[in-house]
Amino acid sequence: MKDLITIGQIELDGQEVNSVNSRDIHKELGLNSDFSTWIKKQLELFVEDVDYITLTKKVERQILIEYILTLDTAKHIAMIQRNEKGMEIRQRFIDYENNNKPKTLTKLETLKLAIESEEKYQAQLGVNKLLVNKIDTISEKAKALTDEISNLDEARTHYAGEDQSILIGEFAKSIFDFKALRIGPNNIFKVLNDMGYLFKRNNKWLPHQRFQDQDLFVVRPVTYDHPHTGKPQVTTQTEITTKGIETLPAKIIAFVKEERKRIYG
Predict the structure, then answer these.
(1) How does DSSP assign 15-27, residue by residue?
(2) What is the pLDDT of residues 190-211, one digit of tens each?
């Protein structure tokens, strides 16, 4: 039997994620219920622009709303059908993910491993003896902060002199996710918005012009094939520059710590 469900990609928070059209799932399940009523009930506990997006299209004078789900959302909806067909669809999604896992480390993943390896190497050689002595005399909170600053200095050194830019979500994942202070890809855009660097327009995060002029961010055009029509589409994505990588981490850490102190005391 031909698989009616096509797995494509959508852009969320500046990153491409696997997706499916919920209308295809409804058809494959063989349901006789009204699609619109069914999908709205399925998505009651999910968040738009996080777990799914909506698209509108005109078909013979009728406006249709398409609900495009992330693959994780689609797996959950297939599972809660509690029937053999739903479990079969869910397993197909799992098989797709297993067969399409990246086989090599990205540059940023390699950077993370290199930073962690360098920390262990320096500790073994006693290069940071003075730092270790200070850490032994201060509180655990000060120790965690010193480690963060040391790691960020190594990351900035790695990027120094390279003319490049990276996605903001990847920047947050590589620099902050494995530190005591966690600022992951899902939070970094809000933090930069609260700090006044970014604003949101048409569901996209964009830098204010003065920060582009300061060479902290760059907005690049990106071409991709539409997951359902296959036609080339042009969008934009905001990236952080080498200068931004070098200058912003310390400011972000200070801002987040102050905000958490203000909220939690």
Answers:
(1) EEEEEEEHHHHHH
(2) 889 999 999 988 888 899 999 9
Contact call for residues 176 and 152 (beta carbons, < 8 A): no
**Pair 183, 193: CB distance under 8 Å:** no
Whether residues 204 and 120 share a domain: the answer is: yes
User: Quick one: which H or E segment has residue 170?
Assistant: helix 168-175
CA distance 226 to 202: 18
Closest CA to 258 of 208, 203, 195: 195
Is 2 part of a structural domain of the chain? no
Q: Are residues 108 and 140 in contact, defined by beta-carbon separation less than 8 angstroms? A: no
d(CA 183, CA 162): 24
Strand (E) or helix (H) holding 140: helix 140-159
Same domain, 175 and 236: yes
- Which has the closest alpha carbon to 6: 27, 36, 31, 32? 27
| Domain of residue 125, residue span | 107-264
User: What is the reported pLDDT for 177?
Assistant: 52
Task: List the chain residues with pLDDT less than 70.
Answer: 1-3, 102-107, 109-110, 123, 125-163, 174-182, 265
How far is CA 124 from its chain centroid?
34
Same domain, 43 and 139: no
**The pLDDT value given to residue 1:** 44
In this prediction, residue 22 carries a pLDDT of 92
Count of domains in the chain?
Answer: 2
